[in-house]
Amino acid sequence: MPALALISAVFVVGFEQLVQWKYGATGLVGLLLLTIGVKAKSPAVSSAGAVLLAVLLAGPAL
Fold this sequence. Notes:
By secondary structure, the protein is mostly helical. The chain has two helices and no strands. It has helices spanning about 1-40, 45-60. α1 (about 1-40) crosses α2. It is flat and about 45 Å long.
């Protein structure tokens, strides 16, 4: 079980670094809002994070 926790922690940290590298601090804030909203079961916070990430992803297409 500890090995699974370690692997998932490494994956999460790696994913956060990838988002921050590609989308900057705004992408990291969006990802954090989405994560916090899901864990706290707050639709408003998770929706704000999802919208922020969607705007960042769709930005070059607009």
